[in-house]
User: Fold this.
Amino acid sequence: PNIIFIVADDLGFADLGCYGGRDAQFGKVSPVIDGLAANGLKFSDGYSNSPVCSPTRFGLMTARYQYRLRGAAEEPINSKAKTSTTLGLPPSHPTLPSLLKEQGYRTALIGKWHLGYPPSFGPLRSGYDEFFGPMAGGVDYFTHCASTGDHDLWVGEETQPHEGYLTDLISRKSVDFIERMSASPDQPFFLSMHYTAPHWPWETREDHAVAQGIKDNIFHLQGGNIHTYHRMIHHMDEGIGWVVDALKKSGQLDNTLIVFTSDNGGERFSDNWPLVGGKMDLTEGGIRVPWIAHWPQ
Assistant:
């Protein structure tokens, strides 16, 4: 089968409707993801490997306890990794994409990497044929700059400027990949869609002006609210809907396994109820996350 592995960033256990999440004022937060759960498997006791970004991604990529690798001892990897030869996923280590590639899959990561920087590390060095997205842990949705102020949107191993809201860029680039793969229906593909939503800064599609006001502090500690947070999730949900539509249009939906989860528990505005705690700690709220699998065939 084709495989699409979707990872949200800092999504709380109960942020989705199918996990009992609160509806925002504009209506349902996650109708597309809820539909995948209703027509697939919704796991009630799914856990991430870690309560923070980078270590979980080491675990997802290698299927090993992440602390076997030096880079995963950083929680999370930060800007000092830019020149490091140790803080990252070693290219010599087998990964899920590298093993699938050996079996004839076309592989792509569209979205967040956060496992080290070129020239020592990078998606193209760990099994992916294509990469579009940020290397850092958090970037602004409009300027695409990391907390250091550096532009951090990459195509392959080069930074390239793009206009647009990052969540939508990830969704549309994913649709483009699926449409290109439909021209070669006999070759299976593995697509990692690693959204930065709903990670800070707290920006919806309409908040371009907010981005201009927080250039020096994208942590956005003074901003956001629960309604903005819900809209950020909803934008991601819409994008996943575009991907599902592209699969239907190309006749690939029945032969595609779609997995959806979060890298760790929720943060500031998330809904982790009835769990205790959240991101950065090893309570249930920090590591128990949504897990959904959908495969019609």
Q: What stands out?
A: The radius of gyration is 18 Å. The longest strand covers residues 2-8. The chain has a mean pLDDT of 94. Helices lie at 31-38, 53-62, 96-102, 166-181, 208-213, 226-249, 284-287.
